[in-house]
Structures are given as C-alpha cells and as structure tokens.
Specification:
This protein has 20 helices and eight strands. It has helices at about 5-10, 20-25, 30-35, 50-60, 75-85, 110, 115-120, 135, 140-145, 155-170, 185-190, 195-210, 220-225, 240-255, 255-270, 275-290, 295-310, 315-325, 335-345, 405-420, and strands spanning about 40-45, 65-70, 95-100, 125-130, 145-150, 175-180, 210, 215-220.
Amino acid sequence: MSSPLADRIRPKTLDDVVGQKHLLGDGKPLRKIIESGHIPNMIFYGSAGIGKTTVARIIAENTNMKLHKLNGTSASVADIKEVISDTETFEGINGVLLYLDEIQYLNKKQQQSLLEYMENGQITLIASTTENPYFYVYNALISRSTVFEFKPVSAEELVPAINRAFRLAAEQVGMSVKVEKGAAEYIARGCGGDVRKSVNTAELCVLAGENDGKEIIIRKGIVEELTQRSNMKYDRDGDQHYDILSALQKSIRGSDENAAIHYAARLIEAGDIISLSRRLLVIASEDVGLAYPQAVSIVKACVDSAMQLGLPEARIPLAQAVILLATAPKSNSAYNAINAALKDVQNEEIGDFPRCLQNKHFDGEGAVEKGQHYLYPHDYPNHYVKQQYLPDTLKDKVYYHYGENKTEQAAKQYWEKIKK
C-alpha cells in the first residue's frame, strides 16, 4: 500500500518547507541555529500538518548523532530505556538525537526519565506537540529546551504547493493535469493552513478527476466535494477551544459585534453551544455588568431558549445574545469590586464584625458593652442612615467604583444626594 502523497514528497531541505518564514527565513532564529550545527533541545509547537515533523527530520538527517524516533501516543518506558541505552554504545558516541512526536502524551515519569541525559548532553531532544507545551510538558523539561511556535500556513503560500501536488500526482499515473481556475485556492482556504491535508486533498482530486486517457481535468466542483473543512479544527479539550472562547469574549468586550458573531458561528458550527452559552452568561456580568443590568436576564432567556430548541434553531437566540452584549454599554465595576474584596479575604484581612451587625439578642453580665446599637435603615428618611458595616480594620476600604455609564452614574448621583 503506497503512502499518501504528502509523505512521498516531504521536503528534504529547509528551503523546500512551505511557510514558517518567521522561523526558517534567511537570518531567522531557528534557521541560524540549524545551520550552526549545534543543535539544542527544542520543542516545536503548532497545529497538525504545518511542518514540525518535516523540519525535525531535516535536522536529524544532517547530524552525526544516532537518530531515534518515537511517538508519544505509543512510546513505552521500554522504548525510552532503549534510547537511553544507546548513549553507552559506539553508535551513540556523538550523542543520540531523539525525535519525539506528540510529547504531550507521555506521562510525567516518562518525561522525567530523559532529564539527566538531556542535562549532560548525551541525548538531544527535538519534540513536537499540537498542544501548548507550557500546559502539557513537564516544567523541568521545558526549562532545558527552547520552544518554537509553528504557525498555520497562509492560503497564498499553500497554492504553489497544491499546484505542485496536482502535477506530481498526475505524473505518477503517467498523465498531465489541467486545473480549473480557483480550484487550488479553494483547497488552500478550506484546509486551514494544513499543508499535509492540502497536498493529500490534491491527490484525491487527481484520482477522482475527469480522465480522458491523456489528461486529468480538476474541476472546482470535485474539489468542493473532496475538500474537508480543516479550518474548522476544534478540540473541546485543546487550545482551539479556549482560543475561540477567548476571542469571542475579547471581541464582545471590545464592542466589535462582527468579530463576536464570527467566533460564535465557529462554536455553533462545531456544535458546542454549551461552551458558548456559559461564556455569554459570564460576559453579561463581567463585561456589561451594571452598565446594563438587564443584559443578564435577556442573555439567560436566550440561553434557555437555545437549550430548549437545540441546533439548528439555537443559533438564532444565541446570535441575539452575542449582538446584544457586543453593542451594549460596558462596565466591569462589579467584576473589579469582587476581585478586590476576595483579595483582602484571601490575605486574611477580614477583622471582626461591627457590633451593630452581630446576631446578638442579649448580653452576659461580663459584657463590657451592652446593646447591639443597630440602626434599622427603613426607620429613617429615604431608608438610609449612616453606620459602620465593614470591620474596623477595613472601615475606610472602597471596593466598588461607579462606572462611567448612564446607569451607574445615575445611581451615584442618587446616593451622593441622600448620603450628604
């Protein structure tokens, strides 16, 4: 069984790698390190199919070190011990280069077993991961490595690689290829910066294209049928999940309703209306808050409607909630107030309750001060009377600051007038 085209035409030099110019362009850091011949421990971080493994293989094939390749999804303790044992052999006299794909799947003990050999230089580690290494890789291992982030390849950079894949795939079956205008661009946009997916999609299009015995014609229609929407990559337990939610909230906070509805659409298309609903409920209080207090009730009603309706109708009340929050006035005064109060409580700056607030109904004979002295506000004009509520140690503390919006400023003026 032949391997996919993307594996058969994998680049052999750094100049052949598609994208990653911020790392591999002339004078860029990773390229300079590789060309120096002194390879440090490195971790390559980025989504699938964008060149991490390719670059690691190019590095490995240009060193004098004994090469071992492991995959974190299947590597065992015995596999790691075998790598370590090679450091004592004649073949490993120049050191061992370990290329470890998907390192995030190794447990802490497996990762720790490499530290001693990385420290003394017997093992040079090049690891790759699709997850944020600062969350998934053991800290001591990260401290001994340099992290390089690989980025999704732009559609413009992908188009030449896709056209080359069309040509090579056709040549392998002994024919030429004719590609309809816009077909390569459609694949480039649809595969979300994934070079491997783009090349393999091009190969599928050649196999399924119109064949007249001399030429294979790739029409846009077949391309649309075969292009998988890799730009909708979404893992509810991975970085994409939190990146989309973060982008959604920051767009709403920044009052950009168009960006907000875009990120909401990505969550809806992925079928994740629960995460979207939870985040909207948070935003209603964290970012809109007291500037428009009714937003909480409206968003809650929209979320409840979405949950009762289910998809595809759920998209409508959720869109209403997103646009309402994005276009509403903003205030984080309540958010700041509770955070400031929690900080004092967590630092044990609490003090005792003022006597007027304590739940005392009688005083013993030994009590120095008798009587609770609580003033009932409803017995006074405007239902207000001045008295101390905070503990003595915090009596002058101010946690809440009125926001610069119509609703909170109206409340501020009301209470300033009464409290004077």
